[in-house]
Design brief:
This protein has one helix and twelve strands; from the N terminus they run H-E-E-E-E-E-E-E-E-E-E-E-E. By secondary structure, it is mainly beta.
Length: about 180
């Protein structure tokens, strides 16, 4: 019972662990012959976000969305990728006349993606719709990302079977994130 409880806690910690850590130590308590004696074992676990190499075709009736999130270089410096940034897509809400009036975004239910070591992100199997891209700021905040060139709303329309590539989205600064 003790081992099951410790394993459940460790699993929860690993799932909720901070993205700033590249390696974590996992500890497992083992009971020996029913006695209260315990032995601690350690194992290094990598929590790095894997590099996105190839984007699969969307499932039937779905669409995929990809792009690269970069921090604009200053003073002649090259752009740098935003690494391990959490992104969410929200759907637009229209009024009775078809005008966009709001967006629906849920930290619990909206599709999510994370940037890899190159700043690349991919959302797989989204419903065809019009979306906005939102930056998640842990623990519970969100910021809508505008078009990095114009500064206006970035509305992303996805059609069935499409793999839409937003290209490089280069921002001078994003709240709370350091590349």
């Amino acid at each position: 019972m003790k081992k099951l409880f410790v394993t459940a806690i460790l699993t929860l910690i690993l799932l909720l662990g901070t993205s700033a850590c590249q390696d974590q130590q996992a500890y497992e308590l083992q009971s020996t012959q029913g006695q209260a004696q315990s032995e601690i074992k350690t194992e290094t676990i990598s929590t790095a976000i894997p590099e996105i190499k190839e984007i699969p075709a969307p499932s039937k009736g779905k669409a995929n969305l990809t792009g690269i999130l970069m921090k604009k270089g200053s003073g002649g410096q090259p752009d740098k990728p935003y690494v391990d940034v959490r992104l969410i897509v929200g759907t637009l809400i229209k009024d009775s006349e078809g005008n966009n009036v709001s967006a629906r975004v849920s930290l619990m239910n909206s599709p999510k993606a994370r940037t890899d070591s190159n700043g690349k992100f991919t959302f797989i199997d989204l419903d065809p719709d019009v979306y906005i891209l939102v930056l998640e700021i842990p623990p519970m905040e969100m910021v809508k990302l505008n078009d990095p060139v114009t500064g206006k709303d970035m509305l992303i329309e996805l059609e069935e079977g499409e793999i839409k590539d937003l290209g490089i989205l280069s921002y001078a600064d994003l709240p709370y994130w350091q590349p």
